[in-house]
Write a structure and sequence with these properties.
- This protein has helices at residues 9-19, 49-67, 104-118, 123-135; strands spanning 2-4, 24-28, 42-45, 80-86, 92-97, 140-142.
- By secondary structure, the chain is of the alpha+beta class.
- It has one domain.
- Strands 1-4-5 form a 3-stranded antiparallel sheet. A 3-stranded antiparallel sheet has the order 3-2-6, with helices on both faces.
- Helix 1 (9-19) packs across helix 2 (49-67) and helix 2 (49-67) runs antiparallel to helix 3 (104-118).
- The longest helix is centred in the middle third of the chain and has 19 residues, at 49-67.
């Protein structure tokens, strides 16, 4: 996820993690010597569909409370949140809150639908594998 022209990614992450605590939260921390301008500042690994619903609700609340108020119509500025839902095989869906989706119901539906389509049959094995790969990476640092 990337928060474009708004609050810091860390502030937004804390807001989301407080509202949806069952996810596993990681921030991008490239190894020394690697300069990155990534669109993805952090990631959340979710253990089940209840966590997906809580995360979707928290993301929308964060958008409404922290990001959307920064809109400046006179400058044509529309703050966005880039969302990418990805499975351990690398298959993904991506969209922006604020451009592609501007209603909570549509957002929650898209998140649920994408998660259902991208979910593997053996969810527990996939969760263990994703957590192992992410925590073992030099790029991601667990924060919550």
């Amino acid at each position: 996820m990337h928060v474009e022209q708004s609050v810091t990614a860390n502030e937004f992450l804390k807001f989301v993690a407080d509202a949806a605590p069952s996810g596993f939260y990681f921030v991008a921390q490239p190894p020394p010597g690697i300069v990155m301008t990534a669109a993805i500042d952090w990631r959340v690994v979710v253990p089940d569909s209840a966590a997906i619903d809580a995360l979707a609700t928290a993301l929308w609340s964060g958008y409404e409370c922290l990001v959307k108020p920064l809109q400046n119509d006179s400058e044509g500025r529309c703050p966005l949140i880039f969302i990418q839902i990805k499975n351990y095989k690398g298959e993904s869906d991506q969209f922006t809150i604020g451009r592609d989706i501007d209603k909570k119901d549509g957002f929650v539906h898209r998140v649920r639908e994408s998660a259902a389509i991208l979910s593997p049959k053996n969810k527990e094995l996939a969760l263990d594998r994703e957590l192992e790969l992410t925590t073992g990476s030099e790029y991601w640092q667990k924060v919550c």
